[in-house]
Structure prediction request, 207 residues.
Amino acid sequence: MVPLASLSAFVALALGMVLTPGPNMIYLLTRSLCQGRAAGVVSLLGVATGFVVYMLAASFGVSALLLAVPHAYRAIQLAGAAYLLYLAWGALKPGGRSMLAVRQDVQAETPLRLFITGLLTNLLNPKIAVLYVSLLPQFIDPARGSVLQQSLLLGTVQILISVSVNLSLVLSAGPLSRWLSGRPVWLVCQRWLMGMALIVLSVRMVV
Prediction:
């Protein structure tokens, strides 16, 4: 079983990752703003399916890797920390965009196309790939039991967090966008808070 301290740290990391602007968030916000909440929910179902695919593939692969090549753990850890710094730079660099700076001129799509596009958007999202391949293994302790079970538990926690946060964004996208559109200072604060949080998480992984 995953230690409570590791699980809590992983929850914080998963929350920070899902709140970081990326392809999934931008697509879901775009669909919700342009085609309504129902379209956003269908798109989210596709995104959630992509998470399940990643979880199953990474859990079995990561389990084999950690058991066969224990020294690969440190390399994976450093790669994850470097990627978090990359995400932090994306949030803090001059000219960085807010997660609510989305297009509103997108044509309507059928439910099937919304689902498939959401699925592909997630499967092709490098942030999610790195989360499962580089970051998730850092919270697994082979001495605490089955590596596979720990991987599946952490993956399930990540999916629940991501779906919950994204569903909240889908349902509140319209009102939130209108409220923030006239408050550029709030958008800047969001970017800086997220960037600093990612830097702190990156340092924690290295040490």
Remarks:
- The chain is about 80% helix and 0% strand.
- The two ends are 23 Å apart (CA to CA).
